[in-house]
Structures are given as C-alpha cells and as structure tokens.
Design a protein that fits this description.
Layout (H helix, E strand, L loop, with lengths): L3 E4 L8 E5 L8 H4 L4 H4 L9 H4 L9 E5 L48 H30 L2 E9 L14 E4 L8 H11 L6 E3 L7 H6 L6 E9 L13 H22 L6
Parallel strand pairs: 2-3, 2-4, 4-7, 5-6
Antiparallel strand pairs: 1-3, 5-7
Protein name: N-formylglutamate deformylase
Organism: Chryseolinea serpens
Pfam families: FGase
Length: 271
C-alpha cells in the first residue's frame, strides 16, 4: 500500500497544494504487533478528520495529498535526520516516536529509541515516498503557473501541557518566522483567517514543521504555510468525534482563505 493518497483537482487547477501529513491511522503489518494495542486502536496524536475537513479542496482546483500511515510509524513532518524543530524545552516527539505527546510509551517493550537500521528502512518505505510525491506535485504546479503555495494542514488538542502550558489559540499560522513565504502572501492568509470568530496566532507556539521549512522558498516563487488548529473547533467537546456544525463553520473559513490565496497567486484577468 502506498503511504499517501493523491486527490486530484476536480475544477480548473490553481497553484496550491494541500498536504495533510498526520491524518493517517494505519500501521504496517510488519510493525503492528510491536505497538501497544490499547494505543493504536485510536492513535491519539492523529490529526483526526483533517483530511475530511479539507475534502472540498479538489472542488476549488486544489490538489491534495494525504498520509495513510500513523505518525507513530514515522513522522512526515520531522527532519529526516531527526534534528529537533524547537529547542525551548517543550516535548516534541521525534522522527520515529517511542512515546505519545504526553510521554506514555508506545511500544510493548517500552523502547527508548528506534534502531538506526529500522529508522532508515522506514524513511525509505514510508517517509520519502510521501515527500517525493509532494515534490512532484509542487514541481508540476510551479511549471504550469510559475509559482506555487504549499498549505500544510494540522490539528492538535486544545491542551497539551508537555508542549505548551496554556490553551492553544484556535488557529496558528506558521511560516518559519517569515522565511517560508512572501510577506504579502503571509499577510493575506493571516488577514483572512482573522476575519472569522477564531483567535489567530502567528508563528507561536508553532512556526511550521519540516514540510513548511523545507519547501518554503519564496525567492524561487515556492511558498509554504502551515495551519495548526485546535481540534475542538471542528470536533466535539471530547475531541474524539467530528462535529458537523463546528466543522461546517471552519470549512467556510478555510474555503474563503484558500480562495483568497488562489486569487492572489493567480489574479483574474482584468484585475
């Protein structure tokens, strides 16, 4: 099974690629028995339903790529050399996690790390195929339009005290402190996200993971933005089930934001 799914645009193409790297819930047969079964029945660090939340994207002319396997197999938004994304003391799980966000062991044998050979195997089998497919889509869009935006989609529980002591903002726009996208594009995204009822933060406490930092090259007309959102804004109060009304309101904002960014990247003739 491929570790990703490409969802092609169903309307005239626009220069945006949506990436959802943490929606996967599958575990490969050769690894499944190594994990604690009580945890992998519903892997809690999953960005639950984010692929469903954005399933309108193809109808706007936006190609979407989504992950199949759980981030507990290998995290597609971590540096392939496992360099830490942040150095401020927060607990951030690594490339091949051995604990959940709250520090609980993932594996039956309570291992502290995944062996180097196994990490390399997972990189080749699961990590690089996703990133190679992502690169292919970006290159094709850039070849067609001369510019492209990668919109990387994430969600998180409203409280994760090992990462941040306070409640997370509703929406967090990340651009690697301005390095991953042009200022005007960042401003357009931030303004549009702030047009609704949600609290919006910029580069705090997240500024974009490996996908944003690696693919944002604004001087080459390749931009990348990460949007992290609080799960309670589209899920129920337990943050376990999809909430149609909350999700519908969020989808309205996401549609208007991506439409505004597409209009900026590809102005209509005569405007």
């Amino acid at each position: 099974m491929e570790p990703f799914v490409i969802h092609p645009a169903t309307a005239p193409l626009v220069p945006i690629l949506v990436s959802v790297p943490h929606c996967g819930t599958a575990f490969p047969a050769e690894l499944k028995d190594q994990y604690r079964p009580d945890l992998i029945e519903a892997p809690d660090d999953t960005d639950w339903f984010v692929n469903k939340l954005y399933d309108f994207a193809p109808s706007l002319g936006i190609t979407m790529i989504t992950a199949v396997y759980s981030r507990w197999v290998i995290d597609l938004n971590r540096d392939p050399q496992d360099k830490p994304l942040y150095t401020d003391g927060r607990i951030i799980t690594g490339l091949c996690p051995t604990t959940i966000f709250l520090g609980e062991p993932l594996y039956k044998d309570q291992r502290k790390e995944v062996a180097a050979e196994e990490t390399e195997r997972r990189l080749q089998t699961y990590f690089w195929p996703y990133h190679n497919a992502l690169q292919k889509q970006l290159q094709e869009l850039k070849a067609t339009f001369g510019k492209v935006l990668l919109w990387d989609c994430h969600s998180i529980r409203q409280y994760v005290p090992t990462i941040y002591k306070e409640k997370f903002p509703d929406l967090i726009l990340g651009d690697a402190d301005g390095a991953a996208a042009a200022p005007a594009l960042i401003e357009r995204a931030y303004k549009q996200l702030g047009s609704a009822k949600y609290s919006v933060s910029h580069n705090f406490p997240f500024k974009g993971g490996y996908i944003t930092r690696n693919n944002g090259k604004p001087l080459e007309n390749q931009h990348a933005l990460q949007l992290e959102m609080s799960k309670i804004k589209y899920m129920d109060d337990t943050e376990r089930s999809y909430h149609d009304e909350r999700a519908g309101e969020m989808r309205t904002l996401l549609k208007s934001t991506l439409t505004a960014l597409a209009d900026y990247l590809q102005p209509k003739k005569g405007t």
